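Reviewers of the previous submission asked for a worked example of the structure-prediction workflow described in the proposal, so we include one complete record here. The input consisted solely of the amino acid sequence. No template or homolog information was supplied to the procedure at any stage.
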Amino acid sequence: MLVILLRLTGILQLWEWGTYDFYIRNRPLPPRDKRIVIVGIDEADIRRVGRGTIPDATLAKLLKKLKAMEPRAIGLDIYRNLPVPPGYRELVRVFQNTPNLVGIQKVVGDERGEGVAPPPALKEKGQVGANDTPVDADNRSRRGLFYLDNKDGEIIYSFALHLALLYLEQENIKAERLEGTHSWRVGNQVFPPFQKNDGGYVRTDARGYQLLINYRGPSGHFETVSLTDILDGQVPPDWGRDRIILIGAVGESFNDLFYTPYSSYLLTPPIPMAGVELQANFISQIISAALNERPLIKTWSESQEWLWIFIWSGISATVTWHWQNQTKKFLSLTLLKHLTLEAGIIFISTYTMFIWGWWLPVVPPLLAIVVSSFAITGYVAGTASVIRKTFARYHSNEIVKNLLESKEGLKIGGKRQCITVLTSDLRGFTAFSEQLSPESVVEIINIYLKDILKIITKYGGSIDKLLGDGIMVLFGAPIAREDDAQRAVACAVAMQLEMKSINQKIKVLGWPTLEMGIGIHTGDAVVGNIGSEEHTEYTAIGWEVNLAFRIESYATGNQILISNATRVAVGNSQLRIDSMKEIRPKGISHPINIYEVGGISGKYNLFLPKEEEILLPIEQPIRIFYLIVEGKHISNTVFNGKLVKLSQRGAVIEINRYASEDSLPLIHSNIQLNLLNPSNKSFMSEHVYGKVLKREEASKTFYIRFTFKPKSVIEELDSLYQSSLQR
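From that input alone, the workflow returned the following structure tokens.
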């Protein structure tokens, strides 16, 4: 619709005319029409007569010689409304005695409305035709007049039609108007009149009875001899027999030149055509259509042209839509190939139709395929942008790109591939969040995630899930790289280093600092779109993913634990291994080794600061009660103990030496404990949480790393630790 509106404004008219001219110039040339010849008057002839206008006597002599050749018609394409002595009387006698001679007049005239009267002697005999020639806005002549009406409403045949009908008289062919129509027929050929919006024209002046000129060839196509050649007898006596002989100026100084579709070539200046040659082309068109069925240049109706444009717009839109759905790529070389192919088909089809005499729109369908293609591309890209913005909140750009651009990206299902899974979790955040309003919890999480997710994206991780304060990240999906494991470890170190900046922001708001534990494992998993058509999630599933979570559960705050598979994938030489421990995760029948990573060398060169933990004995041990935390449940069995040693991050707890070994919690188990106030034994502190990292059965002690301490307990324990330092 946009293209049609543009066309109706006339913006495309010049482009359509240019295409029309191109087709005219590049179609096969028909053979020379020997039925029409020209006597051209040039500058040499003017020099011979010694004056700027051919005298009447010379013109009379020329007409007598041509009449003697017995032509079917003679066309005098020279204005002769006034005498040019000497020889005017002789010229009038020739006019009166030559029934097959046709002169010219200008009916419409120039921009001032001034016409040119015909020769009076020829006017009296009805042997005059109008030589008015419509000129388009680009100064090209593409239309000719069949006839026109003067101001008195009188029909005046054009110069070309008059001569063509004189020629066709001997073939018993006449011109007649078809009943009930505005069309004329010559012989068996109907000549439909030009309409103001035909072809590439828009609101053109279509007054009179106009036709599109089906040019036979460029300037010089018709046989031409000079005035001097005729007067000096340089042509055979039967040269003009049974032909139409046209007489007209061909020299540049006569100002009777027209630019035609043949005038413009890419690398040469425009070559004009003499007016008499233009008339020869139009005469040949009428005669050839009537006798030889040479096609006229016809056009479709406006509705047919609109349908043609809509069809190409639809084809382009359909192809682009199908291609976009297949490839999910925008403005690629393949899209340009599609447009080039469609444009090629338009050019070939319209050019072929033009050779058969049909002028179909070329520029509008070309513009339509481009507009439709870019509109569909823009729509898909816009939709993809919305999808990208939505999914990018939860997935990496890499996953979103794969979903949008891969043929398999949005299909349900997955494939097995080796990936490295990183999982992280804030230690004690559940207990910490219980002390805050929901709004404050969200604010803290957002501060944490804003910085951490930037780190993950920087190292090329694909954010698979945000699990409250936990994160699951994939390295190697959807696209696997050789350094997936290295990037995962480097990302983990960078995340732990970033926690210092995050905690500074949180402390400003008056909240306790956060600690994060990270687990990493490398192995095969099924990666892809999991779910249904209604709800799909791009994720990784499998035992190796579960193992990454198991490893992360053993990590304390500020700790990074990796599996042996990840250690091997990265290369031991690049890692700073601070410790190794053997664990038996749930669901595994045999123990496995996990490694605490303190940094990675090579191109990343990231290391966590080594912190030496100093455990100091407490002058007056603090009685505690503790319970074992099993998963998300807390056991009902309460155990007694004493906090005997303290550091900034952990503590040593001693139980009754006579207690059974079952009272000692297992290594890696989590406990909830409460401190008793030394001055008020009935007052217990808020819940404190920790993870058991060591146990000594002989001394009935175990070491815990704090995972959460309420603000009040932090102040109390810090005071005890400082007192121990000062002793």
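The first strand starts at residue 36 and ends at 41. We consider this example representative of the routine output the project will generate in years two and three.
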